[in-house]
Amino acid sequence: MATAFSSDGEAALRQELGPAAAAPRGELDGFYEMGRAAAFVRGGGFRKVALQFPDALLADAATVAARMEAATGAEMYILGDTTYGSCCVDEVAAEHAGAEAVLHYGPACLSPCRKLPVLHIFGQQPLDVGCCAEAFRELYPDRQSRVVVLNDVVYAHAMGELEQQLCPEYLNIVFSRVVCGDPPGPTPPGEVRQFGRQFRVEAPGGLQDYAMFYVGAEGLALTSFMLTWNRCPFSSFDPATGRGRRETFNVNRALMRRLYLVERARDARVVGILVGTLGVAGYLAVLQHLRELLRRAGKRSYTLAVGKPNPAKLANFLEVDIFVLVACAQNSLLDSSDFYRPVVTPYELELACNPAREWTGNYLTDFRDLLPGACAHVELPPAVPAAEAVPDISLITGEMRAAHLCDPPAPQLPPSTVLACRDQTRALAEISPAASFLESRSWRGLEQQLGQTPVSKAVQGRRGIAIAYEDEGREQS
After folding, report:
1. Residue 191 pLDDT > 50
2. DSSP 280
3. Do the record's keywords include Transferase (predicted)?
């Protein structure tokens, strides 16, 4: 399974970025939709706009910014290295620059933003529509097949032409539309709104009666689609190779791996909540929701903001048994095989800690679906006394564990305090589990050791370079 973030700095340094994804120099106006972008800036009356580019398109950033300034008179500020995934709008960096709006270029997860107005410019990557249509006919020779056509956002501009070629032949074909932001109002029956896509299905059995045809390269978007709509057979067309194929990704095996992580989350006592986005709407609400869920489940939680997660960063938190990543729908599925501790999604943590939520076969990657008022929200059941709780056995360790929900703690106690005591001088002391764990570690970081280290005067150091110091070969007095 593809990873959501680069595993370490070396991967970023070794990544080869060629000009394939960038626009030809003579087609900047069309590729970056300069007219639509300029109309957005002028229509909003914005005086300073942030231009967010992924690494593959960064070579054109200066030229695009100069043309946009000339066309609109507004000041343009280029955002390169994003705080988290490049598919998300980096509102934090834009606000630091004082921007009033954001133009997001390149592939996008289409997660709704919290504050700033955003215009997505996906970049019009070339697509051989005739070749794509022919690959579709080979994969689906039955003209009565029920198929939903999905696409990577960079090919959205060509979907209208593909629809004109296939709709007269296939009466039951459905084309999804790319939707930026949440459509107003509740979702009508038979309509699907997920991953920034919107389409309507008419089959009696709903979406599971359809096959899925994806136009785009293999990646995070396709993986998320296949895990979420795991009851639908998938096929794809890669515009880079010009070939269509039936996807052989073992969805059941991937789901077994995710359910194993759910069992690991049930065994965990200390959970680290990783903040993987600061721009997606609802991230603060889901952080609060996860803290309450873990508190009711009797687990201790710590909220961590470490930027782009990698094994080296997370290995510093040895006291954490498992991490839960709060990120956009595409970046939530982090392959944690290289990590010291597993990384799960908010939905998997809910499966582990909420007794009222059961596995139904529908996998959720958007954390907003778990919030109160959302389509998949499940209320926590009332607390059960420990004496009446049904014993639960871990499927991994074989040990008994507490599976009941706890009562709310006394409001006067701080969250990190489980015991307060006084010594002989009547001084109040607090006992913290985190401090106790730190005390038990053999190495606790650099320490001052006041009064234990002898004080020495400053002396002349070594001179020269590493391969030939001046005093080498002579004994130091």
Report:
1. yes
2. B
3. no
What's the CA dihedral at 146, 151, 156, 161 to 10 degrees?
Answer: -40
Matching fold, domains 129-249 and 252-401: yes
For residues 311-320, average pLDDT:
89
Q: What angle do CA 173, 176, 182 make, to 5 degrees?
A: 150
The top-scoring range by mean pLDDT among 11-15, 219-223, 426-430 is 219-223
pLDDT at 376: 85
Mean pLDDT, the chain, as a whole number?
83
| Torsion angles phi and psi, residue 260, rounded to 5 | -65, -40
Residue scoring higher pLDDT (10 or 471): 471
Confidence of residue 306 (pLDDT cuts 50, 70, 90): confident
151 beta partners: 215
**Average pLDDT, integer, range 111-128:** 89
State the residue for tokens 């946009």: 68
In sequence order, what are the beta bridge partners of 104? Answer: 52, 120
List the 48-52 sheet strands across, edge first.
75-79, 48-52, 101-105, 118-121
Q: Which CATH superfamily is domain 22-121 in?
A: Diphthamide synthesis DPH1/DPH2 domain 1 (3.40.50.11840)
Q: Mean pLDDT across the stretch 273-295? A: 90
**Residue 187: HSE in the Cβ half-sphere, 13 Å Cα cutoff:** 15
Q: Do residues 217 and 147 lie in contact, with contact meaning Cβ atoms separated by under 8 Å? A: no
Do the strands 270-275 and 147-151 form a parallel or antiparallel pair, or are they unpaired?
Answer: unpaired
Q: What are phi and psi of 223, to 5 degrees?
A: -60, -45
**Predicted pLDDT of residue 250:** 78
pLDDT band at 413 (very low <50, low <70, confident <90, very high): very low
Which of 374, 357, 228 is CA-nearest to residue 293?
357
Sequential DSSP letters for 453-464: SPP--------E
Report the distance separating Cα 222 and Cα 267, nearest Å.
Answer: 31
Q: Select the CATH number that applies to the domain covering 129-249 from these four: 3.30.700.20, 3.20.20.150, 3.40.50.2300, 3.40.50.11850.
A: 3.40.50.11850
Model pLDDT, residue 7: 42
The CATH class of 252-401 is alpha beta
DSSP 446: -
Share of the chain above pLDDT 90, in %: 40
Q: List Cα–Cα distances, 160 to 64, 155, 176, 438, 450, in angstroms.
A: 27, 10, 11, 60, 73
Could you tell me the sign of the dihedral formed by the alpha carbons of 227, 352, 3, 23, in that order? positive
For residue 11 the two structure tokens come to: 């991967």
Spans of all domains in the chain: 22-121, 129-249, 252-401
* Residue range 18-22: mean pLDDT, rounded: 47
Contacts of 123 (CB under 8 A, 6+ apart): 21, 23, 31, 32, 57, 105, 106, 154
